[in-house]
Structure formats: structure tokens, C-alpha cells
Amino acid sequence: MTFVVTDNCIKCKYTDCVEVCPVDCFYEGPNFLVIHPDECIDCALCEPECPAVAIFSEDEIPSGMENFIELNAELADVWPNITEKKDPLPGAEEWDGKTGKIAELER
Ligand code: SF4
Ligand code: F3S
Q1: SS3 category, 8
Q2: Helix/strand/coil for 95
């Protein structure tokens, strides 16, 4: 079991999640974070920390976002690790809550 970062993180990237992860299993791209499924210990600490409500347990992924399970696994293998909080992306508040942001994903 793993937790998964989903659509609403894209173009927000608040990074509150990385501060609470006991195993440092977040990986950072230009405008999105992902969780490494082989490193996540399923502790659930990050889920309530995300202001964008973008983190879900693998078995509670909202309908239509199942593709983010595979996407987290794929990108966690190629993006660098992030362990400290940083400023959100410019415009994060405007993008928070928009749907279909997968179209904006930068790799
Ligand atoms: Fe890290 Fe726990 Fe969140 Fe997994 S559930 S990403 S181990 S904080
Ligand atoms: Fe993204 Fe939420 Fe973390 S917006 S960077 S999953 S705090």
C-alpha cells in the first residue's frame, strides 16, 4: 500500500507534505510532487497536511484519478528527492481547485 499525489498538486506544489514524511519518499518535478510507492510506509501523516487535498491512499483514490498511481511510480524513479518545504509555486492559490491539471504537468 502507498499514498499517491494527485491532480490538484499540479501548479500548486505547496510542499507541506515533505516536512512530515518520516521516510523522505517525496520526489520533485517542475510543478508536481510524487510519492515513491516502494518507499512509502503508509503512515498517512502527509494526507492531512496538503492544503490542496491532493494526497490519497492508493485504495481511496477519487474516481478518474487512478492513473496517478502509475504516474507516481514512474516519476519517482526519475525525479530528485525533496526533503524540505519550499515556497508554493507562483499562482498556486489561483490554480488550487481547478480540474484536469494533468494537462499542465511538466516533466
Ligand atoms: Fe511519507 Fe507517510 Fe505520506 Fe507515505 S504516507 S508519503 S510514508 S508521510
Ligand atoms: Fe503537492 Fe500538497 Fe505536497 S500540493 S507538494 S501534495 S502539500
Answers
A1: helix
A2: helix
Q: Which domains does the chain have, with CATH numbers?
A: 3-89 (3.30.70.20)
**pLDDT single digits (tens) 24-80:** 999 999 999 999 999 999 999 999 999 999 999 999 999 999 999 999 999 999 999
> Measured in angstroms, how far is the CA atom of residue 50 from the centroid of ligand 2?
5
Burial (Cβ within 10 Å: 0-12, 13-18, ≥19) of residue 100 = exposed
Cell 511510480 locates to 73
**What separation in Å is there between the alpha carbon of 6 and the centre of ligand 2?**
9
- The residues that bridge with 34 in the sheet, in sequence order, are 27
